[in-house]
């Protein structure tokens, strides 16, 4: 069944999560090409937006061909959040996200993100204010609770539904877990069973088969991919392929991985200049992980901010791989959870 949030019907139920420092315009272009049913910008500070910070507005740069796209807000003041929601809607968001899950101290300290899980009543007020201010679907994202002793996702989920939200995204970890351990899919199943709005499950979806398992185990209406797609945007199309056809499409070969990495570098350079090349270093490490003999090219990429040199390094590595001049045992592909523990 197609996923529907209010009047917005998605073409599939495989969604790309908001990832701070990752899901910028170039990354989202790749995610859209891979067929994501919905993509997200990086989260946006409501307080900064209301002050019209230039950097914040830039995070919200949207391409014409990337709709539907969600812009996720974080903040703790219902009136300010309502004002910010009006702004992101005017800016072109198709979905208004609200972050009730971010564990990062600088967000939590100001009572944003996951700190609000300790105050379900405030969550209710924020969601109601944002729903009232916007004509777009509002989809908050939560964690299972603050810590293992206070898992309250069912209560928070119900509060969010009663406040008029059109869907809920849930990451199956507590705030205390940050990104460690495993996501608790049982809690996700409990939330899904309690709510009538669509529930999107998130946490540890590293392979296409993980999404199938999550859907079967929890009954969620859709899946939200995150770290598994870093340096691996094909996770999106391969997951869609498995869900739609019952068979997992093959992993891309080394050459197509590198061709995409090269393109990602080009998109970043075009959009952010040299600064984008510095930002690409972490992406490059994710793409190159598991490729035979990639240690040398990884080292050299980490030392260059010259676009032509970088493209030359990648082309040379591709050529050596093609000719079988690089020999070493492949590592396991994909991003390991601990690699991205922010
Ligand atoms: C680098 C990074 C940045 C993230 N930024 C956001 C964000 O801006 N908003 C948000 O709701 N979650 C954010 N998250 C959390 C992810 O959306 C997701 O909930 C989490 O990674 C669990 O899914 P996974 O186990 O499949 O990675 C971030 C996670 C990482 C690793």
Detailed description of the structure:
The chain is an alpha/beta fold and 342 residues long. 45% of the residues lie in helices and 13% in strands. The protein has helices spanning 25-33, 46-50, 54-59, 78-91, 105-108, 120-133, 153-162, 185-194, 208-218, 234-245, 254-288, 295-301, 307-322; strands at 4-5, 8-9, 14-16, 39-40, 44-45, 69-74, 95-100, 138-145, 168-174, 199-202, 222-225. Strands 3, 4, 5, 6, 7, 8, 9, 10 and 11 form a nine-stranded parallel β-sheet that branches. α6 runs parallel beside α7, α9 (208-218) packs across α10 and α11 (254-288) packs across α13. The protein is globular and about 60 Å long. Residues 332-342 have low confidence and may be disordered. The structure holds flavin mononucleotide. Residues 17-22, 42-43, 72, 99, 101-102, 141, 171, 183, 202-205, 226-228, 340, 342 line the site of flavin mononucleotide (FMN).
Biggest pleated sheet: 9 strands, parallel
Radius of gyration: 20 Å
Report the count of strand segments: 11
Oligomeric state, counting identical vs distinct chains: single chain
**Uncertain regions: pLDDT < 50 for 5+ in a row?**
332-342
Element order: H for helix, E for strand: EEEHEEHHEHEHHEHEHEHEHHHH
Strand residue percentage: 5-15%
| Global mean pLDDT | 94
Overall 3D shape: globular
Instruction: Spell out which ligands are present.
Output: flavin mononucleotide
By DSSP (H or I, 4+ residues per run), the number of helices equals 13
- Distance N to C terminus: 34 Å
